Amino acid sequence: MAVMNTNTFQQTAPAAVYEKSVPVMVAFAPNWKARLVLFRMLGAFLIVSAFSMWLMPGSVIGAEVWPIKMVASLMFLILGVSLLTLEVLDPRPDAYFDPIRREVRVLQKNENGRPQTVLRRSYDTLGGARFADDQVELFDVDGSLLMKLPLQSADVSRALKGQLSGSVTIFG
User: Fold this and answer.
1) How many CB atoms are located within 10 Å of the residue 113 CB?
2) From CA 44, how far away is CA 38, in angstroms rounded?
């Protein structure tokens, strides 16, 4: 059996507990990747349109059309560049299930984009958990719904069930 040193006084703890437990991170995030791809495609189209309106054969460069064409071209260019460089800071929190401390932490990004803990609950203080195909509902001890989290895969669901099974009543 492998052992792991935990402090300078050579006290040891079994390493098997830590080797089998893996932290689970569950995000509340929507499908931002698809939106970003669409925004970037639209931005590229607008930039190409801004330059191509000047290259089209037979385009009239009259004194009355030139200012309108210039304003439209600049607007397309500015909007296209802004869509290409768009970066989404998702304000939704993340739930972090810590198997070593046996607690769930909800982390919210602050205005600088750094995560801050907004909720910390020990597994022993949770009332129960209900697992569905693609989500888990965590309940408080009084039976009220504490949080509903989407699950990305069956592996995440199994890992979370394994962590919660000793301390929390699992339904479904």
Assistant:
1) 8
2) 10
